Amino acid sequence: MPNSALHFNVDAVRMRLPGRRIDWFQSLDSTMIEAHRDMLPGRIVGAEAQSAGMGRHGRKWISEPGAGLYVSMILPAKAVPVIMLALGLATRDAIGGGADLRWPNDVLISGKKCAGVLAQIEGDAIIAGIGINVSQTGFPGDLETPATSLLLEGVQVSREDLLVALVHAVDRFCQLTREETLRHFAEASSYACGRRVRAEAAGKLVEGVTCGLDPAGFLRVREDNGAETIILAGGVRPI
Ligand code: BTN
């Protein structure tokens, strides 16, 4: 007898996304690993639970069974970090558009992380892994960035509706030009400009105020001595 709380109606989603291959699993180590086994363009891999959910910078992604949307999608390769920004914008859009984005693509509500994106480049394709906290009612207190879920923030949405919205949004935002992506990010993110942050650049910690994106989409930070540093790899934290 399936646990109804964990029953994701994948057939209903397939009807709404005709032509997309969606492989849905009760449990996986990581949807990233399963997606890598067959990189058919457009393929979507999802799981109710992950035993080894991967976050950025080698962190774990807590994947409570049935409480989140854990998916990986095979997309055509695009320049980094533009693709990272596009995926964050798409995730934000799918959950309703009011969230903040911390460069490059952490999705925050009230300063807490409710979704994250991992992009793995494999030849001429990208495996885009997206995790959205949907109905968790609590998180460990020792996370580097405090976490939240849509439910905790008063947003009630089914994971089926969320996946359909996410796939449409990813398709849309990944088709934007670099300039359009950068413009959307600057409009959506409180971190793009004027935010005091700490971040890592070339192995050292940098503190300063964000001052926009460079033409490639990397984050510019002006340190107190006036020097400008380009942040290439995330790890941006507010101070
Ligand atoms: C981050 O650290 O912010 C990125 C989190 C990405 C998590 C998702 S969940 C689905 C996919 N499978 C994984 O193992 N990780 C990504």
Entry summary:
The chain has 239 residues and is α+β, with helices and mostly antiparallel strands.
Overview of this protein structure:
There is one protein chain. It is built from five helices and twelve strands. It is α+β, with helices and mostly antiparallel strands and 239 residues long. The chain has a seven-stranded mixed beta sheet with strand order 1-2-3-7-6-5-4, with helices on both faces. Strands 11-10-9-8-12 form a five-stranded antiparallel beta sheet, with no helix packed on it. α1 runs parallel beside α4. The chain is globular. 41% of the residues are buried. Biotin binds next to α2, β3, β6 and β7.
> What structural class is derived from the secondary structure elements?
alpha+beta
Distinct ligand kinds: biotin
Q: Order of strands across the biggest sheet?
A: 1-2-3-7-6-5-4
Order of helices and strands: HEHEEHEEEEHHEEEEE
The chain-level mean pLDDT equals: 95
Radius of gyration: 17 Å
Distance between the termini: 49 Å
What descriptors fit this protein?
7-stranded mixed beta sheet; 239 residues; alpha+beta; binds biotin; globular
Topology (elements, then pairings):
Blueprint: H1 10-16, E1 22-28, H2 31-37, E2 44-50, E3 68-76, H3 82-94, E4 100-102, E5 106-109, E6 112-122, E7 125-133, H4 159-173, H5 178-188, E8 193-201, E9 204-213, E10 219-223, E11 228-231, E12 237-238
Parallel strand pairs: 1-2
Antiparallel strand pairs: 2-3, 3-7, 4-5, 5-6, 6-7, 8-9, 8-12, 9-10, 10-11
The structure holds biotin.
